Amino acid sequence: MVIALRLCCLSMIMTQVSLSVGTKTGYRLFSVTAVDKLDCIHEGVECPDVYIVERLFSSSLVVVVSLSMPRRMNVYHFKKGTEICNYSYSNNILSVRLNRQRLVVCLEESIYIHNIKDMKLLKTLLNTPTNPSGLCALSINHGNSFLAYPGSATMGEITVYDANNLSTVTLIQAHDSPLAALTFNASGTKLASASEKGTVIRVFSIPEGQKLFEFRRGMKRYVSISSLSFSADAQFLCASSNTETVHIFKLEQHSPSQEEESPTWSAYVGKMFTAASTYLPTQVSDMMNQDRAFATVRLNMFGLKNICALATIQKLPRLLVASSDGFLYIYNVDPQDGGECVLVQKHRCQVDQKEEENPENVPPQPPSQTYAATVALPTTAPSSTTLMGYSEDGGAQKGEVIPEHEFAEGPVCLDDENEFPPVGNQNN
Predict the structure, then answer these.
(1) Hey, what's the signal peptide range on this chain (predicted)?
(2) At residue 271, does pLDDT exceed 80?
(3) Fewer C-beta neighbours within 10 Å, C or N terminus of the chain?
(4) pTM (predicted TM-score)
C-alpha cells in the first residue's frame, strides 16, 4: 500500500486508545496516553507480512494472520513471548473480531465462533452470503456479544447474531446497495451501517433493529466508506472514506418542544421543508429529512486507506485518524459547536522514527506517565511441549497448539487485569 512503512493493516481499539499496525516485517502495538505521546508497547516479528492484527483490549493477547499463511490464525501472549494456539481454516481469513467472551473468524462464505477462554470452536456459520471483504462487527460488550454481518451479497441486509447464545437475533433491511461498513457502539445497543455507495449512514437499535438516525455523508459522488466508529458515550459517530474528508455526526433527537422554543427563521424554513416533503417522492423526502455532518476534518491525503475513531484524551474529545501512509493524526473536536476540527498532533507509526511532526503554533502538551513504562516485554521462546488441540467438522482444524504450562494452574487465562489496567476509560 505505502512505501514509507509498507503497512499491511491498521486497527484501533478505543476503550483504551490502542493502535495495531501490521507491516511487512511483523506487527506493532501502540498506546496513546497523551496527545504528544505515541508509545510502541510491543513489536512482533514472529511472522512477516501481517495483514490482520487484533489485540484483546489492554491484555497481552494478540491475534495475527500473515500473507505467508493466510488460512492460519496465530494467537500470541506477547508479554510472555509464547504462542497460545493456532487454527487453520478451509479458506483465506478475511477478518478477525474478539471480545472477552468470543473470538470470531470471517472467511468469504463462512464464519467461525470460538470461546476465547479455551479457544474451543463453538459454532460454524456455513454458506453465508459472499463477503469478499470479510465485513463483520462484534460488540465489545461481552454481555451480549452481538455479531453483525451481511445477510445478502446484492443488497444491504444485515444479519444480527447472538454469539453468546448462538442464535440469530434479527435481520435489518438497512440499504438498497451491498454493505461496506458496520460498527457497534460500546454497549452493543446501537449499530451503524453504510453501503457501497457511501452517501447515507444509518443507525439502528439493537436487538430490535429499528432505525434511529439517518445521516447524509454527501450527494455529489459515491465513495468507499473505510471505517465507522462511535464515541464511548455513543453521542457521536465518525466516518472516514477514500476521500479527503472525515465526517462526525451527532446522535440527537430533535424534539418539537426545542423547535417551539427557538422560533428562528431557519427553524421556520425547516418546518416548511418538512411539510413539503410529504408531497414529494420518497427518495427526495428522505434526503430532505437526513441530518448532515456535525463536524468535519479535511485530510491532506486522498485515496489512502484509513481508519478513524473518537476518544477522550487528557479530558478532551479527540478524533484520531490512522492512515496507511504510516501516520496517526489527532484532531480536537468541539462537542458543542462542531465545525472544522483542528489538527493538534501528527505521529509517525514507526519505532525508529522518534521525531514527531507538530503543526505550526500548536502548544506542547504536558508530559504524562507512559503506558509502555508499566509493561515488561520478556522474549522467552515459545514452549515446545504442547497438547493436541480441539477440532470440529466444518473446515477449522486446530494443531498442536496449547503450551502445557498454561494448564499448570487451571485453564488458559487470557484476561490480564492483574498485569494491565482494566478495560475502560484509561485516559487522563
Answers:
(1) 1-20
(2) no
(3) C
(4) 0.77
